[in-house]
Design brief:
The structure is a single chain. The chain is α+β, with helices and mostly antiparallel strands. The longest helix has 10 residues. The radius of gyration is 11 Å and the shape is globular. The chain has a 3-stranded antiparallel β-sheet with strand order 2-1-3, with no helix packed on it. 32% of the residues lie in helices and 27% in strands. Helix 1 crosses helix 2.
Length: 59
């Protein structure tokens, strides 16, 4: 299974509650924090919900 690195690049302040929860579910709490996930449809869907707050790259 391929891996994806997800980095939070913008703040979750003044964002809808579902976007804040999605960031938390991805394991992101601070700007600049990087987490690594498997490339699954569930994770890709979560990243697409908050694509304006994160950046991604292949791991």
């Amino acid at each position: 299974m391929a891996k994806i690195k997800v980095k939070q690049v913008k703040s979750a302040i003044k964002r809808p509650q579902n976007q804040k929860r999605t960031l938390t579910a991805l394991g992101l709490r601070k700007i600049g924090q990087v987490v690594e996930h498997d490339d699954t449809p569930n994770i890709i869907g979560m990243i697409n919900k908050v694509k304006h707050l994160v950046s991604t790259e292949e791991a």
